[in-house]
Design goal:
CATH class of one domain: Mainly Alpha
CATH architecture of one domain: Orthogonal Bundle
Number of strands: 5
Number of helices: 4
Structural class: alpha+beta
Strand content: 15-25%
CATH topology of one domain: Arc Repressor Mutant, subunit A
Radius of gyration: 19 Å
Shape: globular
Helix content: 25-40%
Largest sheet: 3 strands, antiparallel
């Protein structure tokens, strides 16, 4: 998948998708490591607190809980992509499951050891 003599490196992204004259991919660009601000994760952090440690319901109910205009499928897609970040940066676990009765999602504050 990668040209001979190169490897996939953590933090690299393709900045251009064109072949150079030698027939190899050009344009690998090092990612600075800075994370883009995600307002929806910050909104979740405001609502899932020590006083209100857990929430679960349908994706539509989650949109209402977060008071967002996002469509439920777009919100759950964004949370699926950012679930690790939500846990690592905010200490909040996101889960989802699908059953015959419909989709369910949930948020839970996770206690982390500071030691």
């Amino acid at each position: 998948m990668f040209p001979e003599g190169t490897s996939r490196t953590s933090g690299c992204i393709l900045s251009e998708m064109r072949k150079g004259s030698a027939g190899i991919w050009n344009g690998l660009k090092r990612n600075s490591g800075k994370r883009r601000r995600e307002p929806i994760l910050e909104e979740i952090e405001k609502r899932i607190t020590e006083e209100y440690q857990e929430w679960s319901g349908s994706p539509t109910e989650l949109c209402e809980f977060l008071q967002t205009d996002m469509k439920p499928n777009a919100l759950t897609q964004k949370l699926n992509v950012n679930a690790d970040r939500l846990l690592q940066d905010y200490g909040i676990q996101y889960w989802n499951k699908r059953s015959h009765s419909g989709r369910q999602v949930g948020l839970r504050l996770i206690k982390r050891d500071d030691a």
